[in-house]
Design a protein that fits this description.
Blueprint (H helix, E strand, L loop, with lengths): L1 H24 L5 H90 L3 H16 L1 E9 L4 E9 L4 E4 L11 E2 L1 E2 L2 E2 L4 H8 L3 E3 L11 H10 L6 E6 L8 E9 L6 E2 L3 H45 L6 H17 L14 H13 L9 H4 L12 H25 L4 H27 L6 H11 L2 E4 L9 H7 L9 E4 L8 E3 L20 E4 L2 H5 L8 H20 L9 H5 L22 H16 L11 H13 L5 H9 L2 H9 L10
Antiparallel strand pairs: 1-2, 1-9, 2-3, 2-4, 5-6, 7-8, 8-9, 9-10, 11-12, 13-14
Helix pairs in contact: 1-2, 2-3, 2-6, 3-6, 7-8, 7-17, 7-20, 10-11, 17-18
Length: about 675
């Protein structure tokens, strides 16, 4: 802006010089006009001078402002540079924190996934492996080991994994762990000699950044492990498995943490420790629950086996029946599941739980026999109750024998009858008594069908009279007295029949309607009496040794089995045990018991039990009431049962053709029974 003002200034000076020239001349034509113009120029000049002064001041101000702007710009540039540096640092921190959060999120997600897996896992070995591998992944550990507490207060190693050595021992690996366990008690006091037992007793987490530098003898166990496997433990994290409010159930041991992507051993960080402790807490609860479930499972298995053994032990003649039926049923069941074609091509026991359900059914199929009196189960003769009453009958024959001899000698003493005749009569009486007792004894065995003629002869023999001279009310029980009370008391001497059906021998049924409203739909006729122990009644049984009352009592074991098992709150997976066990006497023709199920209503497992039960009963060599059948005889009888619609023909064919029957026979039958086993 200074250049225009300088031009005006030069013009002003030129005007002043011109004015002096004019003044020297003294005159001018246009002096006044010129003077006026000069005045105007002077005003203009003054204005220009003022403007110049203002312009200089403005220029100074502008320059000052420019300097201030330059200074501020410099300061701004410095501030921008500082802010940029801070932004870069903040960005780095954000990226680092983002990575940390991402890592923590990944670990948290992994922890959640492991926790879900722990809550769903039922296999103990898989559960232990899930705990250990989850802890190793979360912490970056190269070595992992899981100790479990035993009922005898020891810590035993259940599973070992070492990534760098590609080592996997215990658990589902199938490779045994040879390292001994550690006792938690020493001389009656807590054993704190080992770092593992100390963690368990004191319930603390131990995080060691340099195991090599540790001189405490408690670390000797770790060093022995290192020496045994050729390893060097540098960092250590040991966490107790402690369910809330309960005892320590194990210890988790991790060694040699590594940063992902870096082959360098580092200490276990606080964050890793926190995650592992959280996992250990979940693992402890899962392991405690698993141990509780396992204990309950073992208790249930043992309880079922105890009942089965108790039923077998109840009778010395049927001992082992339940156990053998279970073995045969499992063998036949496996043969059924192995079929890929034919009627059983689509049948399978889906898993171990269904096999367990079937095994329980086999072991418990006769559990109702605990209510069946041994005298009925083991009734080998018709007159047998808690003892064989044939001895009472024989004693009466002995009395008649003595009476015949007494009569003989009385007649001899009287001398009224020739001796030869008396001898003949005595010999005839003796022979008759011997023959009649032999016939009664034969009837008692039940080996021959009792025809009408045999029954008639039995009743004829029963009419023989003998004299009782002793009071039969003496020494009897209160129950027996109550049974006799309605029929009166006859003081001796009393003449009685040799065999009789006395009223007190009929034991009334306490409940005329034993099934109540019959919610289980039992379809089996119930005899009016509970037992009938009449001598003629029993000896006249047409086949076998059982009366209708006895047969119902034996058949009642299935009813009792069904009712007993239905009262038990079986868990899911075992709920069909009552159905399977309670249906092993049902028949395909709908005439079985106790519910007369049709073929469509009888499941395959129940059919298998029925076949196994029949085959075992036919071939058993410990029954007092029958001779054990040979293998061929048993199969022949079962073929008749198939024709009559009693048992499944396909299962019987499979029993014979699959080799199951022969294999069972070799294990449980006598050599003389194996008539067609290769």
């Amino acid at each position: 802006m200074t250049q225009p003002f300088d031009a005006f200034l030069e013009e002003s000076l030129a005007l002043q010089q011109a004015e002096r020239v004019l003044a020297g001349a003294g005159e001018s034509v246009e002096r006044e006009a010129f003077e006026s113009q000069v005045k105007a120029y002077r005003k203009l000049l003054k204005s220009l001078q003022r403007l110049t002064r203002h312009s200089d001041r403005n220029e100074e101000r502008i320059k000052l402002a420019h300097d201030q702007i330059q200074q501020q710009q410099s300061e701004l540039e410095k501030a921008h540079q500082t802010l940029t540096q801070h932004a870069d640092m903040l960005d780095l921190k954000v990226q680092e924190r983002t990575r940390e959060l991402s890592w923590e999120r990944a670990k948290l997600e992994q922890l959640v996934q492991v926790g879900i897996g722990l809550s769903n896992e039922r296999n103990e070995d898989h559960l232990l492996d899930l705990i250990l591998t989850g802890a190793m992944e979360i912490s970056g550990a190269d070595w992992g080991m899981l100790y479990a507490r035993t009922p005898d207060n020891r810590l035993i190693i259940k599973i070992i994994r070492v990534k760098s050595l590609n080592m996997f021992l215990g658990g589902e690996s199938g490779r045994p762990i040879v390292f001994p366990g550690l006792s938690m008690v020493k001389d009656g006091q807590p054993n704190l000699d080992h770092i593992v037992t100390r963690v368990a007793h004191q319930r603390i987490t131990i995080n060691v950044a340099d195991v090599v530098a540790e001189t405490d003898p408690q670390f000797a166990t770790i060093r022995r492990f290192d020496k045994a496997v050729g390893y060097e433990s540098r960092t250590l994290l040991m966490v107790p498995l402690l369910p809330r409010g309960e005892e320590v159930v194990g210890v988790l041991q991790l060694m040699n943490a590594r940063t992902p992507g870096v082959d360098e051993v580092v200490a276990f960080s606080k964050e890793s420790q926190s995650f592992v402790e959280a996992l250990a807490s979940q693992a402890a609860i899962a392991l405690s629950n698993q141990q509780l479930i396992s204990s309950q499972r073992k208790l249930m298995d043992s309880f079922v086996e105890v009942i089965s053994v108790a039923v077998d032990a109840k009778s010395p003649y049927t001992g082992g029946h339940n156990a053998r039926v279970n073995v045969l049923a499992q063998m036949l069941g496996q043969a059924v599941c192995d079929q890929n074609e034919g009627p059983f091509a689509h049948f399978r026991f889906a898993d171990e739980e269904e096999w367990r359900e079937f095994r329980f059914s086999a072991l418990l199929h006769d559990c109702g026999k605990v209510t069946t009196p041994e005298a009925v189960v083991d009734k080998a003769t018709k007159l047998e109750t808690v003892y064989n009453r044939i001895h009472e009958v024989r004693t009466r024959f002995e009395v008649l024998w003595r009476d015949a001899e007494i009569h003989y000698w009385q007649q001899r003493a009287a001398g009224t009858v020739p001796v030869e005749r008396l001898d003949q009569e005595l010999a005839s009486a003796r022979q008759t008594l011997q023959e009649e007792f032999a016939f009664v004894a034969e009837c008692n065995v039940g080996g021959e069908f009792m025809s009408d003629q045999r029954v008639a002869r039995l009743k004829e023999i029963a009419q023989r009279r003998w004299m009782r001279h002793f009071d039969d009310w003496l020494g009897i029980s209160q129950e027996e007295a109550l049974l006799r009370q309605p029929h009166g008391r006859q003081p001796p001497p009393v003449e009685e029949c040799l065999l009789a059906d006395r009223p007190e021998q009929v034991i009334p049924r306490g409940d005329a309607n034993p099934f109540g409203d019959n919610p289980m739909q039992f379809k089996i006729s119930v005899p009016e009496a509970l037992y009938n122990r009449g001598e003629i009644y029993n000896l006249a049984i047409s086949r076998g040794t059982l009366t209708p009352e006895d047969r119902f009592k034996i058949s009642d074991h299935v009813i009792q089995t069904y009712q007993m098992l239905n009262r038990l709150p079986f868990p899911k997976g075992l709920q069909r045990v009552p159905e399977y066990a309670g249906s092993h006497h049902e028949t395909l023709n709908g005439k079985g018991y106790p519910r007369q199920l049709t073929a469509a209503q009888i499941p395959i497992p129940a059919r298998i039990l029925a076949v196994a039960d029949v085959f075992e009963a036919l071939t058993a060599c410990d029954r007092p009431y029958k001779k054990a059948k040979t293998l061929s005889e048993a199969m022949k009888i079962m073929s008749f049962m198939v024709k009559d619609g009693h048992i499944d023909p396909d299962l019987v064919a499979l029993l014979q053709n699959s080799g199951v029957g022969q294999e069972y026979a070799k294990r449980y039958l006598l050599p003389e029974q194996l008539d067609n086993v290769a």
